[in-house]
# Entry
Amino acid sequence: MKKSTNEFIIPFVGLKIGTHRYEFNIDKSFFEGVEDTLIEDANVLVELAFEKKETMMIAEFSISGTVATPCDRCNDPMEMSIHGDYRIVYKFGTEISEDENLIVLHPETFELDISAPIYELLVISLPARKIHPEGECNEEVMGLYNKYIVNANEPEDNDWDEDWDEEDDTDEDWDDEEGEDEDDSDDDPDNDKPIDPRWSVLKNLN
# Structure
C-alpha cells in the first residue's frame, strides 16, 4: 500500500466520545508508490463519520467521484464514476480477527492510518468488467484483437467441420497404402485446401 501521510492519520486518543466527521480529496498523488494498482488517477471525495465509544470505534466511509483505470479490452485509460460505502469496527485486544470489517488494535495503539481502507473501498467500487463504451476503444488494438482473437459468440464454421469428417471417412486406409511415407505430404492435393483461420491463429502464437 502507499506510504502513509499525516493527512490520513487520525490520532483518536485526543478525541472526545462521539462522532467526528472528516473529508478527504483523492487524486493521482494518492496512488504514487502503489504497485500493480488498478487505478491510475482519481477525483474522488471521501467522507468519513468516525464514532468514538468507550470500548470501540466505528468508521463509516462514503466515496463518490471518478477514477481513471485501464480498459479490460484495449488497455487504454478510461474514466468511470464510482460510489460506495464501507463500515469498519475497531476494538482493542490481542486476538486475531477473521472478520474483514472488524479490526483488532493493540491496546497501546493511539492513532489510525485510514489510507488502506480508503484504497480498498476505491478498488471494490470498480465494476467487475471495465470496458469503454462501444466504439471508444483504441482502434489499432481492436484491429489486432478482431484479427487474431476468435470470438466465441460467432457461429462455428460447420462447413469446415463437415469437410474434415468427409476427409476422415475417405482416407480410412491412408496409413495402409503401400509405398506411402508420411513425409510425402507435399504431394498430397489436400495441402492446397485453405487452412481454417482458427488453426492459423494458433500457428502464429508459436
